[in-house]
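Predict the 3D structure for this chain.
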Amino acid sequence: MIARISGAATRSVLVALLIAMPSMLLPVSATESPEIIVLMAILGGALTFAEYFSNYPSFVEFREAPPLNRMRFIAAFVMVGLLSLLTRHALDPTGLTALVQSLGTQLGEALDFAYSPVQLTVLMLPLDTPSESLQLTRSAAGIAYLVSALATLGFIIAIRIGNWPVANGAFNVWVNLPLFDPTTGGDVVSRLQRDGRINIVIGVLLPFAIPAMIKLMSGLIDVSQLTSPQMLVWVITAWAFVPASMIMRGLAMLRVADLIAQKRRAVYAHAETLQAV
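Done. Predicted structure below.
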């Protein structure tokens, strides 16, 4: 009980810190609606505590299959932290923000090639956007895209080398996939494989599709507002994190489907051996 409470409390504090981080790192002049940010941080922490304190799953997938959710959280935490420092550099420069700004400039220029997601992210901004804002968006996109790629690569290594998830013990489908109903919709393995492939395809396409959708909606929304410090941090984080998270989810579902298929083959082979005897 004590371990469950402490674990849930630690996770809730970390989630609240993640939500509040841009407001904490950016100067007061660049923060918007601090009361709403505090409310969202408290709400996010409370939901996280309730989810991990309960014995029964509700909506968080792969809750008992580390390190998938930890890798997702670390990726989001690093993105938000680095992008907050990057946007702070123009307002309140320090040695640390200068280092992040230099890193972002190099990554943005390296990843800004023809038809790349970084280039499309810059092109979604209006033509009259100041060059400083374009450079900031390019740098933010480069940092976020690199972090998302490293998180995805890390999870692939965890599957191939770390033998995820069986290295942590038995995998409980009901606990780790609470929204997946294995009793409907045909064969479980086929459904998991289909859902996994769909998640991977959508995750690969989203970094290209999101800038195009925002460009098409430029007549309905003020795209120039996306370059404001807090908005830029969250928009670029979502642009990079959501696709990476979907790809990781797809890889996880394909892995689970493969484990179920292996288990079936082992059961069938054992049954045939008994019949032969």
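The longest helix spans residues 229-276.
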